[in-house]
Amino acid sequence: MNTNYETLLFEVENDIATVTVNRPKALNALSEQVHTELNSLLREFKEANKDFSVAKGMILTGAEDKAFIAGADIKGMTTMTADEAEAFARLGQDNTLLFESLNIPVIACVNGYALGGGCEMAMSCDFIFATKTAVFGQPEVKLGLIPGFGGTQRLSKLVGRNRAKEITYSGRNVAVDEAKEIGLVVSIFESKEEMLAGAVTYLSKMMRNSPLAVYEAKRVMNEGNDLVVSEGLNVEAKAFGAIFNSEDMKEGTAAFVEKRKPVFTGK
Ligand code: CO8
Which partner for 67 in 97, 98, 112, 125 could form a disulfide, CB atoms 3.0-4.6 Å apart? Predict the structure, then answer.
């Protein structure tokens, strides 16, 4: 895999991949270059990791302490035409869909500002950890814009439509305690170091489970999010049946009966 990017850092340690948006001087704002590089990285990773050989969990974070991602790059947007802006929105949206389609759990580790596009990227991860200084929000209307990397859709699904409208129409900051209260954030940590260590601990625990079963749970839950319950139940039943053909299912149930720890292979 190509791991050399100008605006991203990518490393894998103990089966956990960490993607860091690395433009700290611009508070990690999402320029076209960031989204283009992220698109290449996620596509290549998805292909290479079909058998879980690259990583079994992923962390998305921002370089340094001040910001996770302070939004789309406002300076870059000032010269865009309407067509270019739509293409930029679609590129960013594609990256959110890529995070959702990865076969492993992805935790957004939010340090400092997660505004606009930053909040949107975090919401496309499986869940969000945050430091006590984290600040969320969709301030686009203050710039004469609307959210364009999925915020008009995903925030409602996470916190309810009325709360999402109130946050989006006002463009106000949402402090981390409120973000946890409304279900946007799962856990709050004292510092970035503690948060990253917490994410590694959490992912390591999940990695003792069948990677295939975790992926199927993620896939079915994400797919079901866009369906009415009866259709979602159909997707669930099909996946529940299909997983009975897996080696992991046979190993997991046999290990229980034989009173031993399972050894999962992701097959
Ligand atoms: N884009 C570009 N540069 C940024 C951004 C940004 N979003 N945020 C911060 N920066 C830059 C600043 O310009 C500054 O650079 P310089 O020193 O060269 O002037 C540097 O980062 C440090 O920022 P500040 O000096 O402003 O730091 P403060 O501590 O004073 O303030 C804030 C921090 C409050 C986070 C402030 O920087 C801010 O308000 N940033 C903008 C936040 C925002 O509005 N985000 C939403 C952007 S719009 C968006 O995300 C739309 C997504 C969908 C796009 C769809 C495609 C068309």
Answer: 112
Residue 40, SS3 per DSSP: helix
pLDDT digits 0-9 by tens, 243-255: 999 999 999 999 9
From 27, 30, 135, give the residue whose CB has the most ligand 1 atoms within 8 Å, as the site to mutate: 27
| Tokens 């910001």, located at residue | 67
Structure token digits, residue 240 = 């529940």
Report yes or no: 84 and 34 within 8 Å, Cβ to Cβ.
no
- Three-class DSSP category at 171: coil
Which residues form ligand 1's pocket by a CB distance below 6 Å?
Answer: 26-27, 29, 70-75, 77, 85, 88-89, 92, 113, 115-117, 139-140, 143, 145, 147-149
pLDDT tens digits, one per residue of 84-141: 999 999 999 999 999 999 999 999 999 999 999 999 999 999 999 999 999 999 999 9
